[in-house]
Amino acid sequence: MPDVPLACSVRSCGLPLERRERAFTCSAGHSFDIARSGYLNLLQPQDRRSPRAGDSKAAVEARAALDRSGVGRALIDAVIDRVAALHLPPDAIVLDLGAGSGEMLGKACTGLSIAGIGIDLSGAAVELASRRFPSLTWIVANADRRLPIRDRSVDVILSVHGRRNPSESARVLKEAGLLIVALPAPDDLIELRALVQGQGLERDRVEAMLEEHATHFELIERFQVRDQRQLERDALVNLLQGTYRGARFTSWMKVAAIEPMAVTLSSDVCVLKCRTGG
Fold this sequence. Notes:
Blueprint: E1 18-19, E2 23-25, E3 31-33, E4 40-41, H1 57-68, H2 73-84, E5 93-97, H3 103-112, E6 115-120, H4 123-132, E7 137-140, E8 154-160, H5 166-172, E9 173-184, H6 190-197, H7 206-213, E10 217-231, H8 233-242, H9 252-256, E11 261-274
Parallel strand pairs: 4-7, 5-6, 5-8, 6-7, 8-9
Antiparallel strand pairs: 1-2, 2-3, 9-11, 10-11
Helix pairs in contact: 1-8, 2-3
């Protein structure tokens, strides 16, 4: 695990964490062991909403299978290209909120030779990410709470169909840092949603996100990534389980009878910068 700007997650502490042989410690004596697979668990008891926090192992495996088959690659490539256009120095830090099993951050940092920190609430997701991309830093933590990252230490934050924390993002970003947010576009998976839910409602999420971030950030760029693929049944079921939590649907008879179909994968990508003095 490289030298990264981590901070203690114990309530009211926040002191810098320093790497020891098999643990990270702060000067107040709090210590966090590094797991055998290489990740760090900074989750505190008050950060858990349930005994099994985060996505299930089945949901994590579904998304990993989609990644292996290339589903979602257009969005990953677009975000990587946008980060590459920043020409970040080798010591730059990219932070991924809701990093899942690491597809986005792992490929971005591998291609650009920069350091990355991935945060996710799911221990299963973080363990898989740490095995796939051992050169990066993977943290189990609740990104909705105080981020276990030092002030003004991150160059880019990614939130790709994942968690968002405007005030904490503004705190940890450097003055010239950027926040890149990807949201499901109104027509994302519309064919699949129409089949399973009976209708494919279109809802724009961008304006609500911008309002949520307005105190700390301003929009500097917006673009859409859109891809349509003919998918087999296994991939469709993985999309339901890994993306839209298909297990919550009551219409499982429809899912059981699902057949290959063309599906739209569409995302709105917004690039934001911190407001001056924000």
